[in-house]
Amino acid sequence: MFETFPLWPQRASSMAGNVDALFIFLLALCGFMCIAIFIMILVFAARYRRTKGREAEQIEGSNALELTWTGVPLLIFLGIFVWGAVIYFMERTPPDDSAEIYTVAKQWMWKFQHLEGQREINELHVPVGRDVKMIMTSQDVIHSFYVPAFRIKQDVLPGRYTVTWFRATKAGTYHLFCAEYCGTAHSGMIGEVVVMEPAQYEQWLSGGPAAPLAETGKQLFMSLGCSTCHRFDTQGRGPNLVGIYGKPAELEDGRTVIADDNYIRESILNPHAKIVAGFKPIMPVFQGLVSEEQLNALLAYIKSLSQPPQGTAGTRNTPSTSPSGQQQMIQVQ
Ligand code: CUA
After folding, report:
1. Which residue lies with its CA nearest to atom 1 of ligand 1?
2. Domains, the chain
């Protein structure tokens, strides 16, 4: 029946059921209230109609009644708020071990970069049952990443990263839409999310001769000259980047920031915005010199420097002269 008269898009993610449950509850509540009010209008209109010889009775108020019609809706609305907030936070918080896929939106297409190196346009392949975190940015205007079957929608903004995540629960092909008017061909900015069984997905991954994204980033890191200052020891003119990702960084002006995706992005494009304590603002500005895809590769590389295999051992033995370095060292240990 649902195929011929679909009330809802397919449910293909771990969040879909939660979102639908809340939506159905709201729909049922509104429907119930609507019907109750109309029935009461009709009943009261008949029962209390003007009758000859019968005076209207004046009712002067009732505390019990007023407390009830204030208290009951208050509790219902607070319940809806808490319910919605719980779902919101679940949707906003990608699990720590999510697979990461970089997304660049532009007029009018979706570009995806997998960590394994695969690149796609308007098509996104993901495995069933795996948490996937989308790290997204736009190279022009505001777009919005919308997959109805997953019940997720997240604006994609130029100049920063926004994040959403999902765990697909059912193999299949699902619509991907841009949900923010972004110019002439906005309605054509569509694609497909192809959810595959893990084995199939592995096969798909091994299909292309792609170099891992972090490897591409490493090559850029060398060719752009980053490696001359950001050395893996204490002698560099820039901070040692091993182990910094996700850790607090102490700045020259006394502030402390977390070295997350957006911080690293800013530090590449506009390095003078936040100078790490103990270093000089000598890094060239890369705004306009690297594409969003190249930035993603650099980001993937810098993040890979903080991952356990190379990360921990290297950092632990590397002394650092900068206060931020010391702080990071403590964090890593
Ligand atoms: Cu992109 Cu609408």
Report:
1. 143
2. 8-39+70-210 (2.60.40.420), 213-332 (1.10.760.10)
